[in-house]
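Take our chain:
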Amino acid sequence: MIRVRDEARSVDFYNRAFGLDVADRLDFTDFTLVYLSNADSGFELELTVNKGRDASYDLGDGYGHLAVSVEDLAAEHARFEAAGFAPRKIVEFAPDGDLVGRFFFVADPDGYQIEVLERSGRFG
């Protein structure tokens, strides 16, 4: 679950970036829960939209984050750039010479950092 300010903007980002569609939407007096998923896995992302909230959320200084795996990292990076998502550079993580993983990060509309991870190395 992550808290977002603008439901439409967040749903659009997660759909265009990761192919997630609205699976369910529960509207309550003070907040709305939006569940996003796709047919590729059983993963589901819950967006919480607190009604009447104008201020950005304090994302803290922890490093917890969401990771999404992809087949072709370079192609996804190029697609993200073309879509205007401003992905960070691709990183090859091989601290002892053996590839552990290849990835890049991208921020969602609320500033959450999402890791886009290639299905290679440890994750292949």
In short: The chain has two domains: 1-51, 64-124.
